[in-house]
Amino acid sequence: MSNPQRLIGQHALLTGTAGGIGLAATTAFLREGAHCTAVDLAATPSAELQALLAQYPSHFQYLSADVSRQDSIAAMVAAARAKFGTITTLLNNAAVFSLGDILEITEKQYEVIFNVNVKGMFFVMQAVLKQMVADGCKGSVTNLASQAGRRGEALVAHYCASKAAVISYTQSAALAMAPHGIRVNGISPGVIDTPMWKDVDAQFAKAEGLQIGEKKKAVGLAVPLGYMGAPEDVARAAVFLASPEASYITAQTLNVDGGNVMS
What we know:
alpha/beta; SDR_fam; 7 strands; Rossmann fold; EC 1.1.99.21
């Protein structure tokens, strides 16, 4: 039987929360009793986040931030601390996706992907870790990687490389933070049925000459379990890694992918 409200007393900072995995994780963390600072790029929260604010007015705040900018990260962390105190757990989820022929991918595409998926991920993690160490907080960090970080893909070179970097930074940070009692782990989702997949499917349709929806259907059927995952599948893993149940787990990247990657 699961332990209800496993995250009481925690202050979770979650990025990329407007929809999909980030929204599902924010919902799950609130249900588990955490105070949550949810972050996304938009100046105002999505309708779903507004509904959470109405439901959990004393436990939830929304902040607009651009994780690719150091000044924005600093302001985000300061505002989170001002509201709910020390950040005890981070879900580093903000990310972008694009694909293209490896002979044609532009420098701009590279910069967009790496500025958010790698630079943003690292410096958000660094900022949160600094305040954990300063406050003597034995907290936890979970970085969102991807099954794309476990392998190369012909049309998705930059995204794959960015998510491989997430896995590597997770391992290095975990070793660096272990003496402080801070755990750093990752989650590697497989194909998850989020709003982002509409854009991903459209990009593959254009690149591979497919009908809209064809790629999405194919990748779901190719999963050993036979279907795409749901954002809630990843959210449950995030709750577990942030909870005392995972107190002896660090430097790991957990595959939540229906069996696509075996490790």
